[in-house]
Write a structure and sequence with these properties.
The chain is about 40% helix and about 15% strand. Helix 13 packs parallel to helix 15 and helix 16 runs antiparallel to helix 17. By secondary structure, the protein is an alpha/beta fold. It has 18 helices and 16 strands. The longest helix has 22 residues, at about 435-455. Bound molecules: cobalamin and iron/sulfur cluster (SF4).
């Protein structure tokens, strides 16, 4: 039996694109995990459409596609093509879990939730000609124990196609409660941890593979680099501490996503730094104190009377003290954001001395409280999932016009990565010089491509979004709001 697993491409976004050298950034583990759950007598191939193309003429028995929300239109097209040839298609991932009824219309079977509890039964059913429409039949299937998460089959991927090949997942889910986040919508606050010994073994395996591929690693001149793709690696403090202590002797460099409050936990940062952490991605999200309640995680960071500015600054300083660089993430379009938010965020990012930053627009992903509210208020302007990429504005914001929000996102990127600002950051005496230079260079290239991609005279992308907006205004007989102070 031949199983073809496909990861579609997302267009129109700054993140997740292939580079000018034809490489993708980070490996997503969804399909290597599905492959690991597949019996070894099945011939499995993985195609990552960011860097590879699907060959529809190849004879396959079953196709599995992993679907993030902005990938849904592409995924449905791919499914349609295979189904027209009589090949059965299974869809799984965030989007299918949050909107299974929609996904079901485009495939033969939909997996709702994690693959672990249902995949082997699905394959058995397929082999006996008894494929069901939905797995599990009701509700969402969660992998309940960390020890049931298998080691991903990385060998099915070509490392030369990625800048960052060694993704590892130690935990799944997040106990925080942020209104805009798909993790919360998918896991409903569940959080599971893999046995630390198993994570350590997996990393050892990766190190051995890295040694085979790289002379520098073999000679000990470069440390293997791991990216933890956990949503919130430090959510369980004791587990994180134990994990850091366990990986410290391995001699790796690693990066991860953590919440800002870790910056106030001296013991945890020290353990992270000692075990090879050199870079963290942190969701600061907004410079406004009005965010309390909306962003569960900020409540733990500081009390309502403190200025977020001061707290963020202290957190960043503590990370820097331990030679850990920081990528800050910000979201624009919250109810309290007005037209000044872009300059406020820029000023904040500079004041707190971030090494790099990513900016996103608030996106009403399926299943999130943000979406429910905006749907109720009839403020969703585009339901075309391809625009749900964190870069396109798809809703009517409260105090800012959609156009201003869209332009503001690009303005902020352009300003933050202006050559003189990047040079200024690079020249700062704090550690992480190479990382700051490399990140700024890569972002400038991405912005260049983005400008071309989004220029209306260049391609249909922005026109498409604008058409959605025009239809929305016509149907709602509304006036484009103007930005309020
Ligand atoms: C690595 C990563 C990236 C990488 C690589 C993305 C890529 N295209 O490969 C980078 C950094 C580039 C990235 C970018 C973005 N990402 Co991202 N990313 C992740 C992250 C952190 C880890 C993914 C991973 O490896 N997970 C581990 C695997 C094992 O878990 P899994 O994917 O859930 O898979 C399980 C099940 O879902 C299911 N399953 C999944 N697929 C399939 C397929 C089949 C056939 C079956 C049977 C089962 C199945 O079984 C798996 C095993 O149990 C996730 C968060 C997360 N926890 O998943 C966010 C996440 C997937 N990203 C997200 C988003 C929104 C984005 C962006 C749009 C960012 C933005 N600006 O808003 C961009 C654009 C995406 C793009 N262009 O590719 C959202 C997706 C939300 C949604 N509703 O779709 C997530 C969930 C983060 C979040 N907090 O909301 N991302
Ligand atoms: S802390 Fe991060 S992963 Fe957790 S719910 Fe909030 S945004 Fe999502």
């Amino acid at each position: 039996m031949k199983l073809l697993l496909i990861q579609p491409e997302t267009k129109g976004t700054l993140l997740g694109q292939r580079s000018s050298r034809g490489k993708a950034g980070l490996v997503r583990l969804s399909l290597p995990v599905v492959a690991a759950l597949t019996p070894r007598d099945v011939d499995v191939e993985i195609v990552d459409c960011r860097v590879q193309t699907v060959n529809y003429d190849e004879p396959v028995d079953l196709v599995g596609i992993s679907v993030l929300t902005p990938e849904a239109p592409d995924a449905y097209e791919i499914a349609k093509e295979f189904r027209s040839k009589g090949v059965k298609v299974v869809l799984g991932g965030y989007h299918t879990t949050l909107l299974p009824e929609e996904a079901q219309k485009h495939c033969d079977a939909v997996v709702v939730g994690d693959a672990e509890p249902v995949w082997s039964r699905l394959l058995q059913d397929f082999r006996s000609g008894n494929l069901q429409q939905r797995y599990p039949e009701k509700g969402v299937g969660y992998c309940r124990r960390g020890k049931d998460i298998p080691r991903p089959r990385r060998k099915l991927l070509d490392p030369s196609l990625y800048y960052s090949f060694n993704s590892v997942q130690a935990t799944r889910g997040c106990p925080e409660n942020c209104d805009f986040c798909s993790i919360r919508a998918y896991y409903g606050g569940k959080f599971i941890k893999r046995p630390i010994a198993e994570v350590v073994e997996e990393i050892r395996e990766i190190i051995e593979e890295d040694k085979k591929r790289s002379l520098l690693v073999r000679l000990g001149l470069r440390k293997p680099h791991i990216t933890f793709v956990d949503d919130n690696l430090t959510a369980h403090r004791e587990y994180a501490l134990d994990l850091f202590n366990a990986i410290a002797p391995l001699g790796i460099r690693w990066d991860a996503q953590v919440t800002a409050d870790v910056g106030m936990d001296e013991e945890l940062i020290r353990a992270a730094a000692r075990s090879g952490c050199f870079f963290v991605s942190v969701g600061f999200e907004t410079p406004s104190n009005e965010s309390y309640g909306f962003l569960g995680k900020l409540l733990r960071t500081c009390t309502k009377t403190e200025s977020l500015d001061d707290v963020f600054k202290q957190e960043v300083k503590n990370f820097h003290k331990h030679r850990i660089s920081i990528l800050g993430n910000f979201i624009f379009g919250f109810p309290w954001d007005n037209i000044t938010v872009f300059d406020d965020v820029l000023a904040l990012a500079e004041r707190i001395e971030l090494d790099a930053a990513l900016f996103h627009v608030l996106t009403p992903h399926p299943g999130t409280p943000v979406r429910k509210k905006l749907v109720t208020e009839n403020r969703i302007a585009s339901s075309n999932w391809k625009h749900y990429n964190g870069t396109d504005v798809v809703f009517v914001p409260d105090r800012i016009s959609p156009d201003d929000l869209q332009q503001g996102l690009f303005h902020t990127y352009e300003e933050f990565y202006k050559p003189w600002r990047s040079l200024w950051r690079a020249l700062s005496p704090r550690p992480g010089l190479c990382l700051r230079v490399a990140f700024a260079h890569s972002m400038r290239r991405k912005l260049q491509r983005m400008r071309a991609w989004r220029d209306p005279s260049f391609g249909p992308w922005l026109k498409d979004l604008r058409d959605d907006w025009s239809t929305y205004w016509r149907n709602s007989r509304g006036q484009q709001p103007i930005s309020k102070p």
